């Protein structure tokens, strides 16, 4: 089942609750929560207390993307603040298995992401322990960037590896998703598309989500 996860990073931060409700009304089943620490990525967004405040404004899945160093130190805070899925970066931790275990122990689904320059082979050893794998199709840190060519091939390679090892992980893609490239990533095996600027900049988010689902 294909889903759109609008990225709150493209919302008006002065009214996050209202923006989350807007996505709910537009029919988004997931909300993508981008957490940036100014260390793992060159930008700072917000932390668990802010996320907790908007939890009541969205009834669906809180899809939390931690672009932070030391995810082991902070994952529990995001679980407590209402995350349904916590995705950390493979590049941000020396002990991926420990982070996956901690997230699951908190009763939350575990995701892991790789940056554009990290090969799919790096995440293969963890596929059987993951609920989600996030392929970054831009360098993490900012919304509104252009989709990096070659990301669709990474999705296809990951899909082959997931099928080969019998993993249950779903594939999510994040960065530069538009009506022009959604079809190719679906076709390659991606089930969850993060869309920030495409959805939030739209005068009619509901219609845009519908279009993204029907490209
Ligand atoms: C980038 C974030 C993305 C971003 C996507 O580091 O992880 O979720 O908000 O924004 P768009 O869809 O505008 O590229
Ligand atoms: Zn993201």
Question: How are the elements arranged and paired?
Answer:
Elements: E1 3-6, H1 16-25, E2 30-36, H2 48-55, E3 61-67, H3 71-80, E4 85-89, H4 96-105, E5 109-114, E6 132-136, H5 151-165, E7 170-174, H6 182-187, E8 192-195, H7 197-200, H8 205-213
The structure holds D-xylitol-5-phosphate (DX5) and zinc ion.
Description of the structure:
Helix content is 33%, strand content 20%. The protein is α/β, with parallel strands linked by helices and 215 residues long. An eight-stranded parallel sheet has the order 1-8-7-6-5-4-3-2. Helix 3 packs parallel to helix 4. The mean pLDDT is 98. The structure holds D-xylitol-5-phosphate and zinc ion. D-xylitol-5-phosphate binds next to strand 2, strand 8 and helix 7.
What are the main properties of this structure?
alpha/beta, binds zinc ion, binds D-xylitol-5-phosphate, 8-stranded parallel β-sheet, 215 residues, globular, 33% helix
The overall strand count is: 8
What's the helical proportion of residues?
A: 25-40%
Radius of gyration: 16 Å
The oligomeric status of these chains comes to: single chain
Terminal Cα separation, in Å?
14 Å
Percent of sequence in beta strands? 15-25%
Gross morphology is globular
Overall mean pLDDT: 98
Strand count, sense and barrel status of the largest sheet are: 8 strands, parallel
Q: Would you list the SSEs in sequence order as H and E? A: EHEHEHEHEEHEHEHH
Question: Order of strands across the biggest sheet?
Answer: 1-8-7-6-5-4-3-2
Estimated structural class: alpha/beta
What compounds are bound to the protein?
Answer: D-xylitol-5-phosphate, zinc ion
Low-confidence stretches: none
Helix count equals 8
